[in-house]
Amino acid sequence: MNPFASPVSLNMQGQYNTPNTHKYSVILPTYNERKNLPIIIWLLAKVLEEHQLAWEIIIVDDASPDGTQEVAIELARAYGEDKILLKPRAGKLGLGTAYIHGLDFCTGDFVIIMDADFSHHPKFIPQFIRLQQAHNLDIVTGTRYRSTSTPYLSETQPGGVHGWDLKRKLVSRGANFLAATVLNPGVSDLTGSFRLYRLPVLRHIITLTQSRGYVFQMEMMVRARALGYTVGEVPITFVDRIFGESKLGADEVVGYAKGVWQLFKSV
Amino acid sequence: MARLQRVSIYSSILILIYLLVLFEALPIPFIDASVAQEILPVIPWWLLVSFGSYSLWSLGWGVFTFRDCPEAYHELLQEINEAKNDLRSRAVTVD
């Protein structure tokens, strides 16, 4: 379809002095995020309006008992019903199905997935978009482990993590080394969940993924690479657990190793 | 074909060639037979040790170059405050 004849482009003409006629949908799965949700929406709206992008945020709430949905409705009233879409679900059904549910309501042609707990900062989204447009990439992912982006983009800052002690860093590097050796994914941060996808690419990959939890994020990336989609990386800063301590148990480590083995066998 | 199957096939072929050469069923051109017989039995251990030292170096370097970002944390706290004030003025409940 001619991008200059899309509804977004026709509506934007004469309003914005921008060459970017794409619409960006952000899918935010939430569970008990009553306190964080307004602030993350505020940050997202601020960044996206500053860069004059057509945007929408789809909040997929899994029947939170703390009133997340009420706050979402207030935000929709404040920012516009067309910008903030609340699409609730009946129960806590998991991340992968939350994305699938959100995708049904997407009217954009790019989808951004991220966490709603301040670990992913919206200020990196324009960098993702810039990199995607510069190299016509299918997927752009945020990486905590690199200082420069691949392919190179001049405005990126080095990535990093706040709130991790030495042991946690060692575990993280070890896990990444294991996944990189076994799966050779071509990205430096495999478990990251701050990504920009082209809509048809996300639809395609998500129908193929079978695992759950953070192995789900790994599987999406590995499958994308196996299918030949182009991937770029932008360094991001990751502020882990802004309220509280970051914990990683032995069960999770075993689960992770099992997940890597499953991917090795199936992709 | 899944990665497991690809890796299994390649490694089986390489191991087969290695065993054939080790048991002198296949000759190696341009290298003295005596020299080859000294080097070949050691190759698997050499691979193991090389992989081990590469892994150790990779982990150590990775942990050494792992960046902390305290400035991102402070910036985020400030933005949270700013957001809360702005949202209160827009009739959204924060806290």
TrEMBL record, chain A:
Keywords (A to Z) from UniProt = Endoplasmic reticulum, Glycosyltransferase, Magnesium, Manganese, Metal-binding, Transferase
**Compartments, record wording:** Endoplasmic reticulum
The UniProt transmembrane annotation reads none
Q: For this protein, what is any one GO molecular function term? A: metal ion binding
The UniProt record lists the Glycosyltransferase 2-like domain at 25-205
Q: Which CDD domains match?
A: DPM1_like
Q: Which reaction does it catalyse?
A: a di-trans,poly-cis-dolichyl phosphate + GDP-alpha-D-mannose = a di-trans,poly-cis-dolichyl beta-D-mannosyl phosphate + GDP
Please state the pathway this protein functions in, per its UniProt record: Protein modification; protein glycosylation
Annotated EC: 2.4.1.83
Q: Which cofactor does it need?
A: Mn(2+); Mg(2+); Ca(2+)
Q: Please give the superkingdom of this protein's source.
A: Eukaryota
Endoplasmic reticulum is among the record's keywords: yes
Pfam family of this protein, just one? Answer: Glycos_transf_2
Q: Does the keyword Transferase apply?
A: yes
Major localization listed first in the record, in broad terms:
endoplasmic reticulum
* Gene3D superfamilies linked to this entry: Spore Coat Polysaccharide Biosynthesis Protein SpsA, Chain A
Q: Name one GO biological process term.
A: isoprenoid metabolic process
Under SUPFAM superfamilies, the record lists: Nucleotide-diphospho-sugar transferases (SSF53448)
Q: Which GO terms describe its cellular component?
A: endoplasmic reticulum membrane
Family classification: Belongs to the glycosyltransferase 2 family.
Its job: Transfers mannose from GDP-mannose to dolichol monophosphate to form dolichol phosphate mannose (Dol-P-Man) which is the mannosyl donor in pathways leading to N-glycosylation, glycosyl phosphatidylinositol membrane anchoring, and O-mannosylation of proteins.
Complex formation? Component of the dolichol-phosphate mannose (DPM) synthase complex.
What is the protein's given name? Dolichol-phosphate mannosyltransferase subunit 1
**What are the top taxonomic ranks of the organism?**
Eukaryota, Fungi, Dikarya, Basidiomycota, Agaricomycotina
TrEMBL record, chain B:
| Primary localization | endoplasmic reticulum
The record's Gene Ontology cellular component field reads:
dolichol-phosphate-mannose synthase complex; endoplasmic reticulum membrane
Q: Does the keyword Membrane apply?
A: yes
**Stated role:** Stabilizer subunit of the dolichol-phosphate mannose (DPM) synthase complex; tethers catalytic subunit to the ER.
Enumerate the UniProt keywords alphabetically.
Answer: Endoplasmic reticulum, Glycosyltransferase, Membrane, Transferase, Transmembrane, Transmembrane helix
Under which name does UniProt file this protein? Dolichol-phosphate mannosyltransferase subunit 3
Membrane topology recorded in Swiss-Prot or TrEMBL: Multi-pass membrane protein
Can you cite a GO biological process for this protein? GPI anchor biosynthetic process
* Presence of keyword Transmembrane: yes
Give the InterPro entries listed for this entry: DPM3 (IPR013174)
A GO molecular-function descriptor: glycosyltransferase activity
In the UniProt record, the signal sequence range is none
Location comes to:
Endoplasmic reticulum membrane
- In which domain of life is the source organism classified? Eukaryota
Biological or metabolic pathway of the protein: Protein modification; protein glycosylation
> PANTHER family annotated for this entry?
DOLICHOL-PHOSPHATE MANNOSYLTRANSFERASE SUBUNIT 3
Q: Which segments cross the bilayer?
A: 7-31, 43-64
Quaternary assembly: Component of the dolichol-phosphate mannose (DPM) synthase complex.
Question: Which family is annotated?
Answer: Belongs to the DPM3 family.
